[in-house]
Amino acid sequence: MQPAQYCWQSVPPESAFQSYLEGALETFGIEADETERAVMAGVWSLYEPAMQGLRDADLDGELELDVDLSKAPVQ
After folding, report:
1. Predicted TM-score (pTM) of this structure
2. For a tag site, which of 36, 44, 50, 62 has the least CB within 10 Å?
3. Cβ–Cβ under 8 Å, residues 38 and 8
4. How many CA atoms lie within 13 A of 50 on its CB side?
5. Quick check: 17 and 11 in contact, CB under 8 A?
6. pLDDT tens digits for 27-61?
7. Is the dihedral of CA 47, 75, 63, 71 positive or negative?
């Protein structure tokens, strides 16, 4: 099995990413072969968990208005 085929198979055929990818490529008129699509899917699989974590994070805390970035955050 070639690496590109393995990566692309890791993304389910009806995934949200594949729908987004197909729409974006069509919108911008970009032709991408299976290898390029596999690279895009691989990059997505690396960054998506962290993006999900940001979406799920509770960011409704107090704002620090006078932040000193040279020091560790105050708990």
Report:
1. 0.53
2. 62
3. yes
4. 5
5. yes
6. 999 999 989 998 998 999 899 899 889 888 877 77
7. negative
